Structure to design on (892 residues):
């Protein structure tokens, strides 16, 4: 069988070579000090006002389960790794602690999504896997949340499988989309695995396979009472008339019409008017085709009579920002704070906490990033999910994550919920203690 | 264990719901006519002059092996599918023909990467899987080929694992990168699986874990003679002096220095001068950090003394064009040509052939897309890879694909090999017979 995914026992080898090189160097040099690594991003891209943290609790569980089977470790021997290190790898079991934001949290630049405390070789070894894993779901959830906000009360349906970067991305996207508030997906396995309702109707090819469009509609709606018919294969308005005739004359049960091309606002209005004029207000109008959050927002702002948005390519490929500049930085080693000199890229040393602060009316007013041992009013977001190498909380619950996101977005100033970059970013400050620690650490740099 | 990928036997369910709906409709209505589906893209995005076809031969093998195990089929029953259809699915075995471009071929708008001829329900059922599978590798190979061209004689190394869209994308990217001419990868499992050399050195975190940068360099180069040292953790020029001292005074064996931030051109020049001044011309200088084809081309054009480019985020997330507008269109059903009316998006009916034409000096002069049964001079690119549901050629050979791409790129007009959109696109024409067929088919549309 042509391999589609790596085998599960190969997961540990899906890493960057330098992680293994560094882990071996630490091991051979007996550098066993405890390290703190922090996973965060620095800059919001483009028009973004927030990101949605997703995948980090799953990633933490994953590393608690990560092993390097003997058979896999042997594949590294020809690369020059020493037996002593390979033996260590074969016995690898994460022994450290992971603190993470709850999934579905809004996350702003500089805020750790995840912090790991472990012997340095362990923390280093896990870098590539953690970064890749968190990157995908955070990208997808962040983008989808914008589309959901833009759609207002209308549901957003995921149609993006074909344009995502591979099959795993398509599958796992559905988990992120559930957190983001997407209402349904066309992705069968994704929906079944991650418990999101499935939706799907017909493609142009089905219509094309008939010599007569009316016959195609008739057959499909008989096979699927209440289905959505795709009306833009030849002429959306002529097709609407055909559907109206079928419903009126033959009692065909049609739930919705979908328009996938052309001037969606004008077509939706014209189709709606035809349906209403025929007394078929119960038939919904849904649109798709090249939609993103800006186009959805324009359609909503223009009052187009649209009952649902099918969104694919732009959301699935995260077209406006297909990467976030995630960093996984060593911030403490052997009890001492650590920094890289990064002109223009401030990094703060040490283990941290993020405090999310609300006013008396429950509106979000800002976050403060403090050292891990400081106390503040507000909600401390980083919580321990893995201790002594084992999960200490249940697996993340997508419904809880979705509800958290919904609640946090509703509490956000309106300008930050829009599709454009707000004039003022969400306020994130660093505690005086962290600023002091940063200065003292910088002063000590070589 | 936390699931990272779907199980292999779940692959068939990784599809869009409407594919199953349509397949069932065809089945229930006894519409068993043979269909031709064509996979192509319409528009080159942004500054692109070509795409590199990759993944389509693998995808064809994959569908020849696709099965729907009983256990998986049963998961569809609650969605309302009928037993008659589920039985058909449980016995599914692709029975048709697939013709595909050789992997590593340049592919231009409107040219089929793959054509499938099969009973319509089969061809429809496979749409989402084929599109997703080919999308990823074609995106990655197309982007990477641009970076390789920009780098000229200097090798390009893939550092992108952490920023790709998931673990499968990171793994499978290495296959596409091998085709594209990338010289090495940091991705261990990808390199081992797809036989691309592995490269990797050290991260800033390793340096940071030491109180003294010199000691970090000393230890690492002792552990890894000939290694590449990362010199921009604090100050690249001061670090260069430290390395020179270690090499001269202690005989440390260092192969290269890597600069990952700052003004790469100026730093590379300054580091090169210091090394040359110390008689260490043998130590190479490599750069990384936010590189894409434009930045690489600028560095090369400016004569920066750089011996290798490590490229990650931009290449791995295909930042300038994270999707191609692939379409999978029904072009023939039951012996009759088919079209969708697509204003501004011309589609041609029927099965096709792509003829690649060279002049007497071996330079590419243009392609002609003809009906499948026409004959031309030139190289016919679509060849049968699956017949009667079974592969009829060996699995695609990445070395042959890489060589084909190298040869085709070398034969391309220079303007089309650059980073900017050329004034004149690569010439692709349609045969008179296809134009006629299109007109006749349009005239017959409902």
């Amino acid at each position: 069988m042509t391999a589609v995914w790596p085998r599960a026992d190969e997961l540990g080898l899906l890493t960057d070579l330098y992680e293994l090189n560094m882990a071996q160097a630490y091991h051979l040099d007996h550098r066993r000090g405890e390290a703190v690594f922090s996973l965060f991003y620095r800059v919001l891209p483009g028009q973004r006002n927030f990101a949605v943290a997703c995948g980090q609790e799953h990633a933490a569980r994953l590393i608690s389960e990560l092993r390097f089977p003997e058979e896999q470790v042997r594949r590294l021997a020809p690369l020059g790794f020493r037996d002593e290190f390979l033996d260590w790898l074969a016995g690898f079991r994460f022994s450290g602690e992971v603190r993470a934001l709850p999934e579905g949290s809004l996350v702003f630049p500089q805020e750790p999504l995840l912090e790991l405390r472990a012997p340095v070789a362990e923390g280093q070894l896990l870098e590539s896997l953690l970064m890749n894993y968190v990157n995908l779901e955070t990208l997808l959830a962040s983008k989808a949340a914008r589309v959901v906000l833009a759609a207002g009360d209308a549901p957003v349906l995921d149609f993006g499988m074909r344009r995502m970067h591979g099959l795993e991305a398509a599958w796992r996207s559905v988990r992120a989309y559930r957190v983001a508030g997407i209402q349904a997906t066309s992705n069968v396995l994704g929906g079944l695995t991650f418990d999101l309702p499935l939706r799907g109707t017909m493609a142009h090819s089905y219509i094309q396979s008939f010599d007569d469009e009316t016959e195609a509609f008739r057959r499909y709606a008989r096979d699927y009472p209440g289905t959505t018919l795709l009306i833009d294969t030849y002429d959306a308005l002529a097709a609407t008339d055909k559907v109206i005739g079928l419903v009126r004359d033959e009692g065909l049960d049609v739930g919705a019409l979908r328009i996938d091309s052309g001037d969606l606002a004008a077509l939706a209005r014209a189709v709606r008017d035809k349906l209403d004029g025929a007394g078929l207000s119960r038939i919904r109008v849904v649109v798709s085709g090249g939609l993103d959050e800006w186009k959805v927002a324009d359609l909503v702002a223009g009052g187009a009579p649209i009952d649902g948005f099918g969104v694919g390519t732009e959301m699935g490929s995260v077209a406006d920002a297909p990467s976030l500049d995630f960093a996984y930085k060593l911030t403490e080693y052997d009890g001492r704070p650590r920094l890289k000199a990064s002109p223009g890229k401030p990094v703060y040393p040490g283990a941290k906490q993020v405090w999310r602060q609300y006013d008396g009316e429950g509106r979000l007013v800002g976050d403060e990033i403090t050292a891990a041992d400081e106390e503040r009013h507000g909600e401390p977001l980083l919580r321990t999910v893995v201790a002594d190498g084992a999960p200490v909380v249940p697996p993340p619950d997508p419904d809880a994550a979705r509800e958290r996101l919904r609640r946090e977005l509703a509490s956000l100033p309106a300008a930050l919920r829009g599709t454009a970059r707000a004039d003022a970013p969400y306020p994130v400050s660093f505690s005086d203690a962290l600023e002091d620690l940063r200065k003292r650490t910088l002063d000590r740099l070589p």
The longest helix of chain B spans residues 127-151. Chain B touches chain A through 117 residues (CB under 8 Å). Chain B is about 40% helix and 20% strand.
